[in-house]
């Protein structure tokens, strides 16, 4: 299995949301990123992206 890194950054609530998340591969290349209104929303988005990419171990 390849290595992946998840970056979470808390920010100030505003137009783009309070949390920024980014998923990178082992080489540091960005796979996906977005803003979310809450930490729970950010983690849910990461779960969806992981499942869509087959990284969740169910495929």
Outline the structure in words:
By secondary structure, the chain is α+β, with helices and mostly antiparallel strands. Helix content is 24%, strand content 36%. It has a three-stranded antiparallel β-sheet, with helices on one face. It contains one helix and three strands, in the order E-E-E-H. It has one domain. The mean pLDDT is 87. It has one helix spanning 39-52, and strands spanning 4-10, 19-25, 30-36.
How would you state the average pLDDT, rounded? 87
Number of individual domains: 1
What general form does the structure show?
globular
Residue fraction in strands? 35-45%
Distance between the termini: 12 Å
Q: Would you tell me the structural class of the helices and strands?
A: alpha+beta
Largest sheet features: 3 strands, antiparallel
User: Which runs of at least 5 residues are low in confidence (pLDDT < 50)?
Assistant: none
Number of extended strands:
3
Count every helix, treating DSSP H or I runs of 4 or more residues as helices. 1
What is the helical fraction, as a range of percent? 10-25%
The quaternary organization reads as single chain
How are the strands ordered across the major sheet?
1-2-3
H-E string: EEEH
Radius of gyration: 12 Å
Short description:
This is DUF1508 domain-containing protein. The protein is of the alpha+beta class. It is built from one helix and three strands, in the order E-E-E-H.
Task: Name the descriptors.
single chain, 59 residues, alpha+beta, 3-stranded antiparallel beta sheet, 1 helix, 3 strands, globular, DUF1508 domain-containing protein
